[in-house]
Design a protein that fits this description.
heterodimer, A: 390 residues, alpha/beta, Aspartate Aminotransferase, domain 2, 2 domains, 7-stranded mixed beta sheet, 3-stranded antiparallel beta sheet, B: alpha/beta, Rossmann fold, SH3 type barrels, Elongation Factor Tu (Ef-tu), domain 3, 3 domains, 6-stranded antiparallel beta barrel, 7 helices, 25% strand
């Protein structure tokens, strides 16, 4: 059966170039980057080279790049590594769980936390961030591109607010990296986390930008790796894979891949919105579009249970997600959609389509053929119409 | 639906439903595995001595066959893992469908309220009647499957003469689960397969072994899925505490049928009709709980023979082999899971004040411990005539 993968925000396949770049580092150049000998030096050279790539990508110094295990570690490090009892954290209600849950945990440890809600468009207003500031606000943490709606947050304005307030600023750029250019100087951030597997790199590796002078406590201790900011033998093949994926992502950004993808996404979105009783989640304020990444659209289909639709589409060869993959199997409707003001029923009837860069017209055609049929069938047998309103 | 419409198998991670999936795959059916996630076993862990969930740091990964702690059986992460592994082994699609909110609303809360009202609820029938089959069929249809199959031991066949689907007791009488299935509608029976109905449990295990299912030796689950240790009162206390409530004070008097006060008890939730232990009064002859009054909190106790009653009333009825009960019929009545069905005459409750949906069963021989809150299921030979809830 034909399979169309439209869940790129969950993860992406490795590009062949990435596999090839990583290949020598499994067996031939297997050395420990901390070793003195030639084998170690080969590994070290690869890590150094990768660090140069990442520094160019972030627009920072090489010494400001810390390799780690991915987005969750970067987000956790920013929250746990910077805040002390008595501090105040400002973050948003639409963060990924990798920020939300650390924030909830430190809130139990004597650190004040404010979760700023978004507008119905999915955008967090900079003035709402400003309004949440306190004299003891030490950190602002904001997602660059929301994983569920794709809405891009006004991080430059928030960076300016952080600067005025004398607070540190962390950006969770896991979904944004590879889809929009990254520039930590422009953002005015101190910390920024990314993950390789969201941009055609390997799983289990990522990077955290740490601005020079940021007093960040490491999460992992036990060695002097990564300038004592992240202990543990470097994942050399993973780091090489990350850097290769970043190089390719950078090129394709410059080649207009995202503009092409946005056209496809818009056609998909318009086609899906032809289904009666459907609508777009976020992405516009009374018709005025808000900035979004090019590959994501999030829609609701009334009287359809999102979970059932995901299964029905999977059996038809279409892979999509009802919320974020980390939450699959959870009862709770998406906290992001709920924070945007959707009712519980509408949040649970929502689906996220996120396209790979390699998506084709034929993929969109197939999805536009399969989804209306599935929605129609689910509505015929749906009990959601009879379920308690909410 | 086309002839190739897939069958959705309800997979619990146990040997029975796994074998059902394997048998159907072998018969060339297109099979989709579904697990209803009904209760989060970690939810009350740590409250009032409720065991930690399997797989948690304190218990380690539970595996059967050893002396591992016997924690949550239904919906535990290990059971989902087992079901997923079987699906992978069989090469079938498999999904976990979360129905925790509905389970809490339709099964757990009614269970708790019934218990607090002095009755002895039977959550498995509540679940089958109001959630499991309804939800499975609905999910099945939403993914294009017209029929479901489960690992219940029961037989289900269409009788053209009566133009009805008939539910019958299975080949393996020791595993008979028809008592819990009396609430199935004709619509549900028409779209449900019970492939194990003509097999014995040992034959099922053998079938599982032959098909390379590594969980062939996994022990049967015995207890109520959301009460892992089987300690109702502990569950009740922990659940109510989580809800910001406490077990209401229902302490009261222990009395004889003639009204003589024998002593006091600490709360009616500690009692079930027919119970002999834990009455905390001394008596030359064994005493049993005869009646629990949820209003006065009075618990009536008496001798074993006083426990026997000749009649039973039940409501919230469902009929399977007959369209409705209009005149007296002879049936055998089963009043709890391990009860040997007893002969009785069944008729619409003749009490002029009785609601329409109520029956009266008059036993040939008085039966012990007819317990409000349990279900009464009526049989004619192997067929389930219908059933209801004892009032």
């Amino acid at each position: 059966m034909r399979r169309v993968y439209m869940d790129a925000n969950a993860t992406t396949p490795l590009l062949p170039e990435v596999v090839e770049a990583m290949r020598p580092f499994w067996i031939d150049h297997f050395g420990n980057a901390s070793s003195i000998h030639l084998d170690g030096q080969r590994a070290r050279a690869a890590v150094d080279h990768a660090r140069e790539t990442l520094a160019a990508f972030f627009h920072c110094r090489e010494a400001e790049v810390v390799f780690n295990s991915g987005g969750t570690e970067g987000d956790n490090t920013a929250i746990f590594g910077l805040l002390r009892p008595g501090d105040h954290l400002v973050t948003t209600a639409i963060e990924h769980a990798a920020v939300l849950q650390p924030a909830q945990r430190i809130a139990e440890r004597g650190i004040e936390v404010t979760f700023v809600p978004p507008l119905p468009s999915g955008l967090v207003a900079p003035q709402a961030i400003r309004g949440a500031l306190r004299p003891h606000t030490r950190l602002l943490s904001v997602i660059l591109a929301n994983n569920e709606t794709g809405v891009l947050q006004p991080v430059e304005e928030i960076g300016a607010i952080a600067r005025e307030a004398g607070a540190y600023f962390h950006i969770d750029a896991v979904q944004g990296a590879g889809k929009v250019p990254i520039d930590v100087r422009r953002y005015g951030c101190h910390l920024l986390s990314i993950s390789a597997h969201k941009l055609h790199g390997p799983k289990g590796v990522g990077a955290l930008y740490v601005r020079r002078g940021t007093p960040l406590d490491p999460l992992m201790v036990g060695g002097s790796h990564e300038r004592r900011r992240r202990a543990g033998t470097e994942n050399v093949p993973g780091i090489v894979g990350l850097a290769t994926a970043i190089e390719i992502a950078q090129h394709s950004l410059e080649d207009g891949a995202m503009q092409r993808l946005a056209v496809l996404r818009d056609r998909l979105e318009a086609g899906l919105l032809q289904i009666p009783g459907s609508g777009l989640n976020g992405a516009s304020i009374t018709g005025e579009p808000v900035p979004r990444v090019a590959n994501t659209t999030n829609l609701w289909f009334d009287h359809v249970e999102g979970e059932a639709l995901v299964i029905a589409l999977d059996l038809k060869g279409v892979a999509v997600s009802g919320g974020s993959a980390c939450h699959s199997g959870a009862t709770e409707p998406s906290h992001v959609l709920m924070a945007m003001g959707l009712s519980k029923n509408r949040a649970q009837s929502s689906l996220r389509f996120s396209l790979l860069k390699a998506a084709t017209e034929a993929d969109v055609d197939y999805v536009l053929q399969v989804v209306p049929e599935a929605v129609e069938r689910l509505r015929q047998i749906s009990p959601v119409a009879t379920a308690a309103p909410g | 639906m086309p002839a190739t419409s897939p069958i959705a198998v309800a997979m619990s991670g146990g040997v029975d439903s796994s074998t059902v999936a394997a048998l159907l795959v072998q018969q060339g059916e297109r099979v989709v595995g579904l697990t209803l996630q009904l209760w989060d076993q970690t939810r009350l862990a740590g409250r009032h001595g409720i065991p930690d969930a399997p797989g948690s740091p304190t218990t380690g990964l539970r595996r059967w066959g050893g002396d591992a702690p016997k924690a949550g059986r239904c919906c535990s992460l290990d059971d989902v893992y087992d079901a997923r592994r079987v699906a992978r082994h069989l090469g079938i699609p498999y999904y976990v469908v979360n129905q925790e909110a509905r389970f809490e609303r339709d099964v757990v809360r009614p269970f708790v309220e019934e218990y607090l009202a002095g009755r002895t609820p039977i959550p498995c029938s509540l679940c089958n009647n109001h959630l499991k089959f309804d939800q499975l069929l609905q999910t099945a249809r939403s993914i294009g499957a017209a029929r479901i199959a489960t690992g219940h031991y029961a037989v289900n066949e269409f009788d053209p003469a009566r133009n009805r689907w008939i539910l019958k007791r299975p080949a393996d009488r020791a595993k008979d689960q028809t008592y819990f299935l009396f609430g199935l509608t004709q619509e549900q029976l028409a779209h449900t397969l019970f492939p194990l109905g003509n097999l014995t449990k040992p034959a099922v295990r053998e079938a599982a072994r032959e098909r390379g299912l590594t969980l062939a030796e996994k022990p049967d689950s015995q207890e109520i899925c959301f009460i892992p240790g089987g300690d109702y009162k502990q569950f009740l206390t922990a659940y109510l505490e989580e809800q910001g409530r406490a077990i209401p004070d229902s302490a009261g008097e222990l009395v004889t049928p003639s009204g003589k006060v024998l002593g006091r008890h600490n709360g009616i939730t500690a009692f079930t009709v027919g119970q002999r232990k834990g009455l905390s009064v001394s008596s030359p002859t064994p005493l049993y709980v005869l009646q629990i009054d949820p209003v006065s909190h009075r618990v009536t106790v008496g001798a074993g023979e006083e426990l026997a009653t000749r009649t039973l009333r039940a409501n919230r009825l469902n009929w399977i082999s007959i369209p409705a009960l209009t005149a007296p019929i002879r049936v055998q009545v089963k009043i709890r899971h391990r009860h040997e069905p007893a002969w009785a005459t069944l008729e619409p409750d003749p009490d002029p004040a009785a609601p329409a949906d109520r029956i009266l069963a008059t036993f040939d021989i008085p039966q012990r411990a007819v317990t409000p809150g349990q279900s009464a299921v009526f049989y004619q030979n192997d067929e389930v005539v219908g059933g209801g809830w004892i009032v």
